[in-house]
Amino acid sequence: MSGNMRKDIKPGANVSIVLKKDQRSGTLTQGVVKDILTKSPQHPHGIKVRLEDGQVGRVKEIH
Q: Which Pfam families does the annotation name (predicted)?
C-alpha cells in the first residue's frame, strides 16, 4: 500500500519512508510511525511522518 492517504497511516504502523537526503536516490528507510506530520488528508509525494527513532520522511510503503 502506498503512503499517499493520511487515513491509511496510524502511529505504530511499520512503514518505509524516504528521507529528505535520500530523495534523489530513492533509498528507503524502514521504521515504526511515532507522529504524523502532514495535516492534509492526502499528499502526492507521501504523508510526512516522524519515526520512533526521530527520523522524518515521506511514507512510500505501508507494511
A: DUF2196
Write the CATH number for 16.
Answer: 2.30.30
pTM of structure: 0.93
Residue 40 within any structural domain of the chain: yes
> What is the residue whose three cell numbers read 507521501?
46
pLDDT digits (tens, 9 = 90+) for 5-42: 999 999 999 999 999 999 999 999 999 999 999 999 99
Q: Which residues of 30-49 are buried (b: 16+ CB within 10 A; e: fewer)?
A: ebebbebebeeeebeebbbb
CB < 8 Å & 24+ apart, contacts of 18-26: 18/46, 18/57, 18/58, 18/60, 19/55, 19/56, 19/57, 20/56, 20/57, 22/57
